[in-house]
Amino acid sequence: MAVEPTLVPDDTTTALPPRPFNFTPGTGEAVDEVIAAGPREMFRTLLQDRESETTLLLARRVLHAFLARPRVRAVDDLPAAVAELVEQARADLVPAHASLAAADREVHAELLRQRGVIALLDGCWLDAVSQPATQPALVVNRLFGHHVVLAGGGDPLESAQHRRARALEDAGAALPDVAAADFLDRAEARPATILLACFPLALAVLPANFLPEVVGVHHAFHRLGIDDRLLGTPPPIPPGDLDALLAEYAGQASPHDRGRVLAAVELTLSLEREHLGLLTELLEFRRTQTLESKAAEVISRHAPLAGKQHGRVTLGDRSLVETFAGFGRTAAAADPAALAEFLTEFRESPYLAEQPDGDCRFLAATRFGGAMFGIFDEREAKVLADWIATVHKGAKPSIAVRPNTVGDALAARWSAAIRHARPEDVVFDASPPSDDRELFYRLVNIENHAATLKVAADRAERCFADAQVLFEHGAGGRYTDASFFEYDADALYARAEKIYWEKLVEPYKPLEQVPDADEVLFEQSTYQLTYLIDGAWLHRVGRLGRRERESDGMLFRIHADEMGNGDVRKNHLTLTRRAMVSQGRDLPHIRTEEFTDQDELPDDMYGFALQQLSMCLFPDRFYNEILGYNLAIEMFGSGEMRLHEIQKLRHHGFDDCYEQAHLTIDNFSAGHAKQAADIIVAYLDRVRRNSGEAAVAGEWRRVWRGYASFAFFLEQPLLREVATAETADESAELVL
């Protein structure tokens, strides 16, 4: 029979309760080393190492440094107050925008590359805002809807980041992907720029604990729209959508939370002013920089890399190797006085002496066939050629090299703030969880329990290893077949179709007798712990710097579907709540300590949920396994089990929305089950093209053990049979 939809109250969470951040002893010293290594190492760690305690503590210290300055103050009309601040900032920055726009093309491109370090991070603070601790809050769903837009719906070529990168390229300011090893070098990023970029990267690491700040940063960054003005691109998020988000948040938030949003807006506008000020300072530096200083800058960039092959080249009474050794090991360490002395000697040397045809030995050496061909890029070669041309014309002024110190005062201030940041809510305690319920609580709230990361990684790895027993025995599974087979795309599709038909669809027959309501409710309770974390296995995949693979975008699309693409009514966690409330279960949120005391869901189902929560924290380390697990869980949504559950729920008048949604969306025709197989094929095809056929086998084995890890929990009767048979065999051997 048809069942009326169950109405559940909206989740109007606007901030999580304050909690300490727990780390393993020794993590503080590791973070000190990262900070001491400088802005580049901090940037690299926050961007690329999202799976370690070090990164989480570094993020906490960075956020403390930046957020300690703005004060939290009460505000009645948050949207009006924010609009006034944004409009004032926009008006204040008009002169700066005008001066930057008037720069010549070469300098303008340099300014855009500098700004690109921040522009290409746009929206990173939304990468993990949708997670078990925050869903299905209304504000999180609205933010996630914006995230879907910024991510191009999972199509990297349609993402805001790609569009912005194309705009930079069109302006002559092309940059590699933000995760590229030479990204900061190609951007010629100033230390202050890198430090300002560390703030949004840190926010991306801890968005659940700083949800009001995410709202404020997201709104102010896009509403101010510096990058849209600099690049002449349309806003990636329509202003009306940003305003609707802020108005909705303001209507739900406490005065304190509204104050946190306002403080984040003020901070964002201040940081954007600071960076535009840095760009203006860089423009002025380039405008007033002498040609000699430009030449010195080129020389200082390459001198640290000059090898022993220059030992026979002399300048004055020293070899070039000895001369360059005095410059230091990096361009930044080069002494201006030493550079000035070098250029003064260099212009008087035979290497620059003008020849009858107007050429000189140095320039000839930089061309094709010369000993220095390929050393300098086009821009650098032009600077040196222009300077040498003035020398040939007789211009030999006293050389004073002015080093590029743009933003150094700003960098010193933020470096000191981060170095001295010691948040009072950071504690160091490596005590293990007392039981599965406490572990579940910690994994849901992992931002506050980084010390549990090792427990999670070890648990996930142990399960993957144990599940390989099904490589031999998996064919006997009731709903799965995890028996191992050699990979090729056709074989994978054939196996998936065989499972779909023979284990999920063809065995189905309507139940002749429906169990009583108590039995149906108990059976539902064995599923619902995992229903409450639906989609979690994918929530960290496809973050900034992890979007270049086709499989990343495809996985993101599945996760977006699970979260309703930002529509809270279609969010699978909302559907779970509807179903549970219709069954008389209205439990506390899984992030709360109260949930650890609930007695509605059986303890023996925690292992299944814990495996999912453990592996999802390591989307880099367990990427292959996540692909295989994704195939297994999406296929399980189809066929007999769902149809039987729907029949039982409808018979007793319970809401079947969750089961119905998965029965349709997980289909093997074009739904998530088929997409999951396509994702594996796309990933392994990339492996083949990049690393060769031999590499595929190892990657595939890991993918399939991810599939087996799902079956490991689902096929407990089969595993008991295997264990019994092995015990019998061992007993027989003893008798013999």
Brief synopsis:
60% of the residues lie in helices and 1% in strands. The protein has helices at residues 27-37, 39-48, 53-67, 78-92, 94-101, 105-119, 138-150, 160-170, 183-187, 191-205, 211-224, 226-231, 239-252, 255-288, 291-302, 320-325, 336-347, 361-366, 378-392, 408-420, 436-444, 453-467, 470-473, 489-505, 517-531, 550-562, 572-582, 606-615, 623-636, 640-651, 657-665, 672-691, 693-714, 716-735, and strands at 21-23, 314-315, 318-319, 426-428.
Description of the molecule:
The protein is mostly helical. The chain is 60% helix and 1% strand. The chain is built from 34 helices and four strands. It has helices at 27-37, 39-48, 53-67, 78-92, 94-101, 105-119, 138-150, 160-170, 183-187, 191-205, 211-224, 226-231, 239-252, 255-288, 291-302, 320-325, 336-347, 361-366, 378-392, 408-420, 436-444, 453-467, 470-473, 489-505, 517-531, 550-562, 572-582, 606-615, 623-636, 640-651, 657-665, 672-691, 693-714, 716-735; strands at residues 21-23, 314-315, 318-319, 426-428. The strands form two sheets. Strands 1-4 form a two-stranded parallel sheet. Strands 2-3 form a two-stranded antiparallel ribbon. The longest helix is centred in the middle third of the chain and has 34 residues, at 255-288. The radius of gyration is 30 Å and the shape is globular. The protein starts with 20 loop residues before the first strand and ends with a helix. The model has no long low-confidence stretch (mean pLDDT 93).
